[in-house]
Automatic annotation (TrEMBL):
Pathway: Cofactor biosynthesis; coenzyme A biosynthesis
Catalytic activities: (R)-4-phosphopantoate + beta-alanine + ATP = (R)-4'-phosphopantothenate + AMP + diphosphate + H(+)
GO biological process, one term: coenzyme A biosynthetic process
Name of this protein: 4-phosphopantoate--beta-alanine ligase
Record family assignment: Belongs to the archaeal phosphopantothenate synthetase family.
């Protein structure tokens, strides 16, 4: 038994564990109620993908790890779903690629901002950005546009998981390289990303960390080659085909 009363060899274990974490996130004031709906959408795509990391997603996760290692100022953006699902894994990824962690909410309230920052600190984050909110993403309404000037505002590479398409587009319009994690290959977020990762965040983040740890210390030419050989449109096509055909 683990954090839910269900044996780990249950065929729906991963999916039920994910639901339990999101439910818990809502109860703790971390995840928004809309986060439950977003989770349901994600689950449907994951079911069609066979609840596995397909090879094109693994290549995207490797390219993302290389891109993060090459970055001068990488930032991992965390919303209410991400915090509920993968807080310790985000802390591990940040350590592996030397990235900042910033809470950045679609439905921003100070209460949720603080609850998420506290939750991340409980899971080992020593610094959490997002609360200063002295920067702005242009072309977005006030609350949704808030970022830290020395966090996402100053980042050259940003990981944006489970993001609303509008905001993902506005972020991509800035001079930043955007890595998106989203199970829907047709979403605007995935379509606007330099590196779209079509995988469940509960698998994607630990896999990115594994790749980063393996690539750590590689020459920048090697890392640049991995990034250059990755084609976003191929990854999106492969994911859509896997979802449509089940192959
Ligand atoms: O915490 P907040 O206020 O920042 O709000 C977060 C949500 C997720 C509610 C907000 O950003 C939102 O409404 O997002 P959307 O527009 O529903 O988009 C979420 C996308 O993430 C959808 O395309 C889902 O398919 C996808 N998704 C959901 N769960 C997962 C996922 N992708 C990867 N892993 C998941 N577990």
């Amino acid at each position: 038994m683990s954090e839910i009363e269900l044996p780990a060899d249950h065929p729906r274990y991963a999916s039920l564990l994910t639901r339990h974490r999101i439910e818990d996130g809502v109860e703790k004031g971390i995840t928004s109620k809309q986060g439950l709906i977003a989770q349901g959408r994600g689950e449907a795509f994951d079911y069609l993908l066979g609840e596995q990391t397909i090879p094109s997603a693994d290549r995207a996760e490797r390219a993302a790890a290389a891109q993060l290692l090459l970055a001068d100022h990488p930032v991992l953006s965390v919303n209410g779903n991400v915090a509920a699902l993968v807080a310790p894994e985000i802390v591990d990824l940040a350590a592996a690629v030397d990235a900042d962690i910033e809470v950045n909410l679609f439905n921003r309230t100070e209460k949720r901002m603080e609850a998420i920052a506290a939750h991340l600190r409980e899971h080992g984050a020593d610094a959490v950005k997002g609360l200063t909110a002295d920067g702005r993403i242009p072309n977005l309404s006030h609350e949704r546009a808030k970022v830290d000037a020395d966090g996402i505002g100053a980042a050259d590479v940003v990981v944006v998981p489970l993001e609303d398409g509008d905001r993902a587009e506005a972020l991509a319009d800035l001079d930043k390289t955007e890595i998106v994690i989203d199970l829907n290959p047709l979403s605007r977020s995935a379509q606007t990303a330099a590196i779209p990762i079509v995988d469940n965040i509960i698998r994607a983040v630990p896999t990115m960390t594994e790749h980063a740890e393996e690539l750590h210390g590689s020459a920048s030419e090697t890392l640049n080659t991995i990034v250059d050989q990755f084609a976003a449109s191929d990854a999106l096509t492969a994911a859509e085909e896997a979802i449509r055909t089940g192959v």
